[in-house]
Design brief:
Blueprint (H helix, E strand, L loop, with lengths): L1 H44 L8 H11 L6 E5 L18 E6 L19 E7 L12 E2 L9 E2 L12 E12 L2 E5 L8 E7 L2 H4 L2 H16 L11 H12 L29 E4 L1 H8 L2 E2 L10 E2 L4 H13 L5 H6 L5 E5 L2 E8 L2 E9 L2 H7 L2
Parallel strand pairs: 9-14, 10-11
Antiparallel strand pairs: 1-2, 1-8, 2-7, 3-6, 3-8, 4-5, 6-7, 12-13, 13-14
Helix pairs in contact: 4-5
Length: 371
């Protein structure tokens, strides 16, 4: 009995303690609500310096730096298949850019003086990237055949900010429309800005002098291999033009400048041999230039003649426009692409690309090949 009485006394004591704890919790809860109300009242009267926080700065940047396209590219490439990975790989690839009247009341005034330049930089948006919520830090450039590098060491279109930069040839300007060649842009690409290409400032002086010296040395030795590197001809030409400018000061001391690129870009590109079947050649012969007759038929194309069309197709295919996945997983499948009004069917076999058929581009086969 004594043990039972002692246990009952302990239970009553525990109950009193629990009751005291509950009362204390209720009291502290009331005090907390009071303190929170005081803090809210203080903050409403004295707002914090939001601009000092990253989130507020980001919000301000997002609201202030919304970009509006100055125009949209009208390109010979209507789908992503077959678009050159870099500008100037296909000189016959033509396009136009018209400055929107919503940007300037007289858009042609913004182009005054630009016709004195032969090339321009185009800043554009990769608008067909798909979802931008899953951008990867590592990508697989086609020239590395599956090896991965950081996205910022490449020109991959899949970037946190889907902005591209392209150097194109400016053929002429008519009103507010620029006529371009050597483009690598999809039809409908939004353009954010254009800037003139200036060799004196856009190319490191050290690089210009080095390439020029190597070209002269190789030429004297009877070896023109240096001239076959991608873009070397244009680089050396620009260096010569720049060096011919009288009394133009160098923007920096070239002796203190070095210019390096990734090792995989120092190798001479391996071009594919492009072949045309007899049927493909007969297909090309059926096409003719626009304006060669009254009206327009399905066999009219934007090329001056069949030879230039053949050259444009060759320029696209010799650089192997396929992705790494298509080269490794789907190498036995036919490859389709569009250029101007031509629908090209081809296949690849190791170092060969063979054009099987060339037919007019219609809405039907365009939709089919985009599946």
């Amino acid at each position: 009995m004594a043990d039972i009485e002692k246990l009952a006394t302990d239970v009553q004591l525990a109950r009193r303690e629990l009751k005291n704890i509950r009362q204390e919790c209720m009291k502290q809860k009331v005090n907390l609500k009071s303190e929170v109300a005081k803090i809210k009242e203080f903050l409403s009267k004295n707002p914090p310096m939001e601009k000092d926080t990253y989130s507020c700065v980001k919000k301000e940047v997002d609201s202030r730096y919304c970009t509006t396209p100055i125009g949209f590219i009208s390109s010979c490439f209507k789908t992503k298949n077959g678009i050159p990975r870099q500008p100037a790989l296909c000189p016959a690839a033509k396009g136009t850019l018209t400055i929107e009247k919503s940007i300037f009341s007289n858009p042609e005034h913004s182009l005054i003086g630009l016709n004195e330049f032969s090339h321009i930089w185009i800043l554009f948006v990769f608008h067909e990237n798909g979802s931008r919520t899953a951008v990867k830090a590592k990508v697989h450039p086609p020239r590395l055949n599956g090896a991965s590098v950081g996205v910022f060491s490449t020109r991959s279109p899949h970037r946190p900010c889907a902005i591209g930069l392209s150097l194109t040839k400016l053929d002429k300007i008519e009103g507010s429309t620029l006529f371009l060649s050597g483009i690598d842009l999809l039809d409908g690409t939004p353009v954010l800005d254009i800037k003139p290409y200036i060799p004196l400032y856009d190319m490191p002086s050290y690089l210009k002098e080095t390439l020029n010296e190597k070209a002269v040395q190789e030429h004297n030795n009877g070896n023109n291999s240096i001239l076959h590197q991608a873009g070397a001809e244009n680089v050396i030409a620009d260096a010569i033009v720049s060096s011919a400018l009288p009394n133009v000061p160098s923007p920096c001391n070239s002796k203190n400048i070095d210019c390096n690129v990734a090792s995989f870009l120092t190798e001479i590109p391996k071009y594919l041999d492009v072949l045309f079947t007899d049927r493909a050649l007969r297909d090309l012969e059926r096409f003719h230039a626009e304006g060669s007759h009254e009206g327009c038929c399905v066999n009219c194309f934007a090329f001056p003649n069949q030879n230039e069309a053949k050259e444009a197709i060759t320029d696209v295919l010799k650089n192997d426009p396929r992705s790494v996945y298509r080269r490794t997983k789907c190498s036995d499948r036919l490859y389709y692409f569009f250029i101007n009004s031509l629908h090209i069917t081809c296949w690849f076999d190791e170092s060969i690309a063979e054009v099987l058929r060339v037919k007019p581009c219609t809405d039907g086969n365009e939709k089919y090949d985009n599946l």
